[in-house]
Design a protein that fits this description.
With 439 residues, the protein is an alpha/beta fold. The protein has three domains: 85 residues, Rossmann fold (3-Layer(aba) Sandwich); 199 residues, UDP-N-acetylmuramoyl-L-alanine:D-glutamate ligase, CATH 3.40.1190; 133 residues, Protein-Tyrosine Phosphatase, Chain A. The strands form four sheets. A six-stranded parallel sheet has the order 7-8-6-9-10-11. Strands 15-16-20-17-18-19 form a six-stranded mixed sheet. Strand 18, helix 13 and strand 19 form a beta-alpha-beta unit. Helix 5 packs across helix 10. It is globular and about 65 Å long. It starts with 9 loop residues before the first strand and ends with a helix. The mean pLDDT is 94.
Amino acid sequence: MSCNYFGKKILILGMGLTGISCINFFLKKGIRPKIIDESIHPVNFFKIPKNIEYSLGNLENKWILESDLIIISPGISSFRPILIKARLLGIEIISDIELFSREANFPIISITGTNGKSTVATIIKKIAQNAGYKACLGGNIGFPVLDMLDKKANLYIIELSSFQLENTFSLKSKIAVILNISEDHINRYPKGFQQYKKTKISIYNKAEICITNSNDKLNDLLYIKNKNWISFGTRKSDYYICYENKDTFLFYKNKKILNTNEILLYGHHNYNNVLVSIAISDAMRFPRNYTINTLKSFSGLPHRLQIIKNKKGINWINDSKSTNVNSTEVALKSIKTKGTIRLLLGGDSKSGNFNILKNDFEKLKIKIYCFGKDGIKLSKICKKKSIYVQNLKNAMILILKQVKSGDTVLLSPGCSSLDQFSNFEERGNLFIKLIKEMT
């Protein structure tokens, strides 16, 4: 369903990778959009073609209210007063995902969730490719989705954040999945967690097959009828995890599929990621043997509970992708050690409720090194086990003086990295660099 954008005044908000992909999309159609970025020195400024009009340093620009169509980058809040005003004037505001949805001619697997999106999306791409598909992965990971339209693909896998779903209305997924929903980005949503949850659930609106986590108890889904629902997570689900003696098995309707001893990923959250990957693959009718063989060889993604070094009895784990409190909680539950867990926690907490970690902190043999923008606040959750340090490097210097054989040093910050880093990868890479230099 390709749309005609000729004769429209088109404005792009944000000069990140998404914004650049939107410019290229319109230029290929012979249309010249305008673009605004709030930064005075956006890093991608050099990628802007010379014939494109731009404005830097402020979003409050008359171009917004003069536009017919605005494409908003996920980093910009939809709830800015000037954008609310634009909507009231009848100006259409959409995401790049919406543009992509109007153009895509092949099946789409859409994956969202608070945690685990990138892992599951990457597994599905590998299984699809092994099953003979020309699968392309983009969205919140890899390529901006519009760049995928130029690839020789016959299956699109898109990882979606709630920000991308806010202004997406035409997405017709072959399969739509919500892996899990817990509190994240609450500072972005004026009406709090319920609004965040409602945004996530919108992924199911036009989907053919809906895969849902039974643990989330999404009663809101009852309003979406005539859908093909597949569930995972609890014993009453279609797909579930079962513990027998010392082994953990993945099941589909009372049939054993896989012993988790046969896969390289570890931790209950990863078993859930594998479980939902099987559910998606079965729904796509990928041959089961391709699915199982791919899962047995998949070793995980960088910055996600990635073991960097195990030397002198000390385990160093990089979980920099942990950008919300729930992911830190999951990481702590995955650590098996007789020594002390030395947790690096901090950054921008995005108004998350970190008090849910208090019980874990009190029970565990743990020392917490809190850093960054909300480090002082986080250090007050469990004062007797916490210390505030200004940044990650200072925390590592302190840890090296205190760490002993048997300990696990875990970078699982639970916060956005943007107060002190460009992204979570830069944070994780600094951690790895410091380990290599200091140990």
